Amino acid sequence: MEFNKIIEEKSNESWDIYIPNLSVDCVVFGFHDTILKVLVTRLKETDLWALPGGYVLKTENLEEAANRILFSRTGAENIYLQEFKVFSDLNRSDGIFDNFPDTLWNKQRFLSVGFYALVDFQHVNLIIDDFSDACEWKSIDELPNFMMDHRSIFDKALETLRRQLNHKPIGYSLLPEKFTMPELQKLYEIILAKKLNRGNFYRKMLRYDILEKLEESRKGGAHKAPDLYKFDLEKYRLALKNGLNEGW
Questions:
Q1: Could you please report the per-residue DSSP string of 86-102?
Q2: CA atoms of 191 and 121, how far apart (whole Å)
Q3: pTM for this predicted structure
């Protein structure tokens, strides 16, 4: 079905089931092959990319809406979610729906609540919906041309992630259950956008006593196989409650 017809059909239904003038946009972060990535979708019949988003049903709260939207895109449940900002600039959707009548649901003014989501890359199954022709992971260093104010939403999410690194379970949520110390350090370096001293980083992490060293190592590669670790979740949560309190 043509994109315009899909939009018009969905518009009629939307007036009945969604809360007017309220939407949700999600910045979904995943960490894979030592690269921090973000989930993006491409709007049908355009070269514009978007963050996963949608509207809030009259029967759900904001977090339920965000979880529903993310499940429809990733097939993943129990995703770590953090609300971080409301985006309310005038004319946020200018240019996207100019050729549609003013009565179109999507053409109304929407305040969008931003959530960042942290997912285990291995447990995500990307799903393309009726409005998109692509759903992909992109490196945060190679972002596509975003529609509307989605680049601003992404930038604010990354800024919030950086600020909350010592207070939220970011490492636990992004890394696989078993990981190496270099992988953990690389994740911190990408989020903080700076290089960290290897020795200092290792000492700080071990001093927190939040990691459990496993009796196994990462196989493969030409060099000595690095040791594997996992988070001691109880100790990790306790440490985050007080804040890791380190300048990186």
A1: EE--TTTTTTTSTTS-T
A2: 16
A3: 0.91
